Amino acid sequence: MAYTPEKPTPPPSAEELRARIPGWGADLDPADRPSYPKEKALDIGAHWTFAEEQPEGRDRRERSIEHGRLTPVFGTAQPLRGVAGAIRRLAYDRFSEARAAHWLLLVAGDRVDAAGAHLRSLATRHPDNPITETGITAERRWNPLTSRLGRVDARHQWIDPILVAGPWILAVVGVVAVGRRLLRRG
Predict the structure, then answer these.
(1) Concatenated DSSP letters for 106-127?
(2) Domain span holding position 96
(3) What does pTM read for this prediction?
(4) Which of 1, 74, 82, 111 is the most exposed place for a label (fewest CB within 10 A)?
Protein backbone atom coordinates (compact mmCIF):
# COMPACT_ATOMS: atom_id res chain seq x y z
CA MET A 1 0.00 0.00 0.00
CA ALA A 2 1.37 3.41 -0.96
CA TYR A 3 1.45 6.27 1.52
CA THR A 4 -1.10 8.91 0.61
CA PRO A 5 -2.13 12.21 2.24
CA GLU A 6 -5.41 10.64 3.28
CA LYS A 7 -5.54 8.57 6.42
CA PRO A 8 -4.66 4.98 5.49
CA THR A 9 -7.04 2.17 6.20
CA PRO A 10 -6.68 0.81 9.74
CA PRO A 11 -4.54 -2.29 10.11
CA PRO A 12 -6.38 -5.60 10.17
CA SER A 13 -7.41 -6.92 13.56
CA ALA A 14 -5.76 -9.91 15.22
CA GLU A 15 -8.75 -12.09 14.37
CA GLU A 16 -8.61 -11.10 10.68
CA LEU A 17 -4.88 -11.83 10.55
CA ARG A 18 -5.32 -15.18 12.33
CA ALA A 19 -8.03 -16.17 9.83
CA ARG A 20 -5.96 -15.08 6.82
CA ILE A 21 -2.44 -16.22 7.85
CA PRO A 22 -2.02 -19.73 9.26
CA GLY A 23 -0.11 -19.62 12.54
CA TRP A 24 -0.25 -15.84 12.94
CA GLY A 25 0.08 -14.77 16.57
CA ALA A 26 1.33 -18.14 17.77
CA ASP A 27 3.84 -16.43 20.06
CA LEU A 28 1.49 -13.84 21.58
CA ASP A 29 0.81 -15.91 24.69
CA PRO A 30 3.97 -15.88 26.88
CA ALA A 31 3.19 -19.39 28.09
CA ASP A 32 3.58 -20.68 24.50
CA ARG A 33 6.98 -19.06 23.96
CA PRO A 34 10.01 -21.23 24.75
CA SER A 35 12.13 -18.11 25.37
CA TYR A 36 9.72 -16.52 27.83
CA PRO A 37 11.59 -17.51 31.01
CA LYS A 38 14.63 -15.64 29.66
CA GLU A 39 12.51 -12.51 29.16
CA LYS A 40 11.60 -12.24 32.84
CA ALA A 41 13.49 -9.67 34.90
CA LEU A 42 15.55 -11.81 37.23
CA ASP A 43 17.80 -10.67 40.03
CA ILE A 44 21.22 -11.59 38.68
CA GLY A 45 23.17 -9.84 41.40
CA ALA A 46 24.50 -7.00 39.23
CA HIS A 47 25.65 -3.98 41.22
CA TRP A 48 24.52 -1.55 38.52
CA THR A 49 21.41 -0.72 36.52
CA PHE A 50 23.43 0.45 33.52
CA ALA A 51 26.99 -0.71 32.87
CA GLU A 52 29.82 1.64 33.76
CA GLU A 53 30.81 3.47 30.61
CA GLN A 54 34.25 3.19 29.11
CA PRO A 55 35.90 6.63 28.84
CA GLU A 56 35.92 7.89 25.27
CA GLY A 57 39.48 9.24 25.39
CA ARG A 58 40.93 11.81 23.01
CA ASP A 59 39.81 10.06 19.80
CA ARG A 60 36.15 10.63 19.03
CA ARG A 61 34.45 7.32 18.33
CA GLU A 62 32.04 6.88 15.44
CA ARG A 63 28.41 6.53 16.42
CA SER A 64 25.40 6.23 14.17
CA ILE A 65 23.00 9.18 14.27
CA GLU A 66 20.19 6.80 15.26
CA HIS A 67 21.80 6.18 18.64
CA GLY A 68 21.79 8.74 21.41
CA ARG A 69 25.07 7.55 22.90
CA LEU A 70 27.91 5.11 22.50
CA THR A 71 27.60 1.61 23.82
CA PRO A 72 29.12 1.23 27.30
CA VAL A 73 32.10 -0.67 25.86
CA PHE A 74 33.61 -0.08 22.42
CA GLY A 75 36.74 -0.93 20.52
CA THR A 76 39.66 1.47 20.29
CA ALA A 77 42.19 -0.66 18.41
CA GLN A 78 41.74 1.01 15.02
CA PRO A 79 40.93 4.71 15.43
CA LEU A 80 39.89 6.56 12.29
CA ARG A 81 42.66 8.54 10.66
CA GLY A 82 43.51 10.25 7.42
CA VAL A 83 41.30 10.62 4.38
CA ALA A 84 39.64 7.24 4.93
CA GLY A 85 38.76 8.26 8.49
CA ALA A 86 37.25 11.53 7.26
CA ILE A 87 35.09 9.63 4.76
CA ARG A 88 33.90 7.23 7.46
CA ARG A 89 33.17 10.09 9.88
CA LEU A 90 31.09 11.76 7.17
CA ALA A 91 29.09 8.53 6.80
CA TYR A 92 28.41 8.37 10.54
CA ASP A 93 27.81 12.09 11.09
CA ARG A 94 25.53 12.79 8.16
CA PHE A 95 23.67 9.66 7.08
CA SER A 96 21.42 7.16 8.83
CA GLU A 97 22.30 3.48 8.71
CA ALA A 98 19.12 2.99 6.71
CA ARG A 99 20.52 5.05 3.82
CA ALA A 100 22.61 3.58 1.05
CA ALA A 101 24.87 6.65 1.18
CA HIS A 102 26.00 5.63 4.68
CA TRP A 103 27.15 2.20 3.53
CA LEU A 104 28.59 3.40 0.22
CA LEU A 105 30.72 5.96 2.07
CA LEU A 106 31.94 3.25 4.45
CA VAL A 107 32.90 1.09 1.46
CA ALA A 108 34.62 4.08 -0.17
CA GLY A 109 36.52 4.72 3.07
CA ASP A 110 37.61 1.10 3.09
CA ARG A 111 38.84 1.31 -0.49
CA VAL A 112 40.77 4.53 0.23
CA ASP A 113 42.31 2.84 3.27
CA ALA A 114 43.29 -0.20 1.18
CA ALA A 115 44.85 2.00 -1.51
CA GLY A 116 46.82 3.84 1.16
CA ALA A 117 48.06 0.54 2.59
CA HIS A 118 49.21 -0.54 -0.88
CA LEU A 119 51.05 2.75 -1.38
CA ARG A 120 52.67 2.47 2.07
CA SER A 121 53.79 -1.07 1.23
CA LEU A 122 55.65 0.24 -1.82
CA ALA A 123 57.85 2.30 0.50
CA THR A 124 58.96 -0.80 2.46
CA ARG A 125 61.60 -3.40 1.67
CA HIS A 126 58.85 -6.00 1.15
CA PRO A 127 56.03 -4.45 -0.90
CA ASP A 128 52.77 -6.28 -1.55
CA ASN A 129 52.99 -9.08 -4.08
CA PRO A 130 49.60 -9.33 -5.82
CA ILE A 131 50.47 -12.65 -7.47
CA THR A 132 51.18 -14.65 -4.32
CA GLU A 133 48.70 -12.84 -2.07
CA THR A 134 45.73 -13.73 -4.26
CA GLY A 135 46.48 -17.45 -4.00
CA ILE A 136 47.05 -17.95 -7.72
CA THR A 137 50.31 -19.84 -7.19
CA ALA A 138 48.70 -22.18 -4.64
CA GLU A 139 45.75 -22.72 -6.95
CA ARG A 140 48.09 -23.71 -9.77
CA ARG A 141 49.88 -26.22 -7.58
CA TRP A 142 46.86 -27.72 -5.76
CA ASN A 143 44.25 -28.95 -8.27
CA PRO A 144 43.83 -25.96 -10.56
CA LEU A 145 40.77 -27.24 -12.41
CA THR A 146 38.85 -28.69 -9.50
CA SER A 147 39.37 -25.54 -7.46
CA ARG A 148 37.59 -23.56 -10.19
CA LEU A 149 34.88 -25.98 -11.25
CA GLY A 150 31.66 -26.33 -9.32
CA ARG A 151 32.02 -23.05 -7.41
CA VAL A 152 29.03 -20.86 -6.69
CA ASP A 153 30.71 -17.79 -8.18
CA ALA A 154 31.57 -19.50 -11.48
CA ARG A 155 29.57 -16.97 -13.51
CA HIS A 156 31.80 -14.07 -12.60
CA GLN A 157 35.19 -15.78 -12.31
CA TRP A 158 36.26 -14.15 -15.54
CA ILE A 159 36.34 -10.74 -13.86
CA ASP A 160 38.59 -11.84 -10.95
CA PRO A 161 41.88 -11.26 -12.81
CA ILE A 162 40.68 -7.83 -13.95
CA LEU A 163 39.71 -6.79 -10.42
CA VAL A 164 42.93 -8.11 -8.90
CA ALA A 165 45.46 -7.12 -11.56
CA GLY A 166 43.65 -4.09 -12.99
CA PRO A 167 44.58 -1.57 -10.28
CA TRP A 168 48.20 -2.71 -10.35
CA ILE A 169 48.40 -2.42 -14.14
CA LEU A 170 46.81 1.05 -14.01
CA ALA A 171 49.28 2.09 -11.31
CA VAL A 172 52.25 0.94 -13.42
CA VAL A 173 50.86 2.72 -16.49
CA GLY A 174 50.41 5.89 -14.41
CA VAL A 175 53.94 5.75 -13.01
CA VAL A 176 55.38 5.20 -16.50
CA ALA A 177 53.36 8.12 -17.90
CA VAL A 178 54.48 10.45 -15.11
CA GLY A 179 58.08 9.26 -15.54
CA ARG A 180 57.99 10.00 -19.28
CA ARG A 181 56.61 13.49 -18.68
CA LEU A 182 59.33 14.22 -16.14
CA LEU A 183 62.02 12.97 -18.53
CA ARG A 184 60.69 15.13 -21.38
CA ARG A 185 60.68 18.24 -19.19
CA GLY A 186 64.15 17.54 -17.73
Answers:
(1) HHHHHHHHHHHHHHHHHTSSS-
(2) 63-68+79-125
(3) 0.55
(4) 1
